[in-house]
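note to self — DONT lose this again. spent like an hour looking for the file last time. sequence + predicted structure for the chain T wanted, 347 res
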Amino acid sequence: MRRRGTACAAAGLLLAVALGCTGGGGEDTPEPSPAPSRAKSETPRGTPSPTPTSTSALADPVSLPALMRREHTGSGLRLGSALDRTSAYTRYAITYEANGLTVSGIMNIPEGEGPFPALVLAHGYIDPDVYVSGQGMPREQDRLARGGYVVLHTDYRNHARSDEDPDNDVDLRLGYTEDVIGAALALRDSGRPEIDGDRIGLFGRSMGGGVVYNTLVVAPGLFDAAVAYAPVSGRPQENIDHFQRPDGDPVVAEIEEKHGTPEEDPAFWRDVSPLTFADRATEPLLIQHGTADDTCPLAWSREAAAAFEKAGKDVELRAVPGEGHTFGSRWASEMDATEAFFARHLR
């Protein structure tokens, strides 16, 4: 049986859990859909990543250094039935393999002659018990496909038709990072003429923003550029304290029993924070965060941007005046900025 966090306290509450969190978090509520050369990564694809430096003498198997040392696999991208056809793109049910697990999702493929650059979308928290395939980031899925991108929206493990990973919640949901890495590798390995496997970007919101941070430090050079939209904290313990502990999530006790508290084992908690390893990132990163976000405080993004900047990385933080966790009136203009960012680095 898969472990679950507690359900959201109120139906309209949007909460997000960082990849390092284990309970409920920022929920992606479905919403109505409304040519420069790319930069080269400092780490060529297919070459080994720099050896990770753990903050402990021997990294815990549940840690970012452990994921850095793992040889990740992603393959077997399979298109299922066509779910929808528009004048601009066709939407398919898909599955792919990531480190031995089958992960489901959806893919939008633009009309016209490819190959098209591809984007992997990492959604925010939605209770897996109610989640349906492709539920997260509906506005972004539609707009980016209309903009000429192949869009692969991963469901993650334990969601929809994906395989189950019963330890994922207690192990700080690090499996979601593996699922995103596997999605990129599956795109590159697909052999499909519509997909340009040499031009792949990553876009995550809320909890998926935490997935973005982790992916950048675990697999530098895999993507060409990344966007984090209203992301959670880069420090897992902050997300637990902000989202799970006040809600009485029983998984918190399981986490602390297995991994200890930050006071009991500070090295473990440093090793599950992507900010510890910001120097490993190679991709340009755009962070977008509303100043009125009362789900994920803007201070979290300011800290993350400062960490990447201090490490000498190409990072930009756009603090969007007056916007909350799910952008409203400024969503279209922020998507303009997102598409312009990807156009600079993927085309």
